[in-house]
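# nightly structure sweep
# worker-07 picked up a monomer target from the shared queue
# config: single-sequence mode, recycle default, output format = structure tokens
# input follows
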Amino acid sequence: MLAVFVGFEIITKVPPLLHTPLMSGSNAISGITIIGAMLAATTPNTLTTVLGFLALVLASTNVIGGFLVTHRMLSMFKRKD
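# output follows
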């Protein structure tokens, strides 16, 4: 619950110009989550392996979606020749 409050307070105080770098930072954090999920998926325990694989899929989806949104936002700032 504290993380939700702190995250909301941080996001509302960030100017819109800085949202793209903030999203890139969250993509880096998701990348770290992927490493942890890969480590969890290689354990001999079946439940841990399944949860690790699920975490790997969800974190990968988050990273790919984040980069696609960031790319789309950055393409809005390209000059039209």
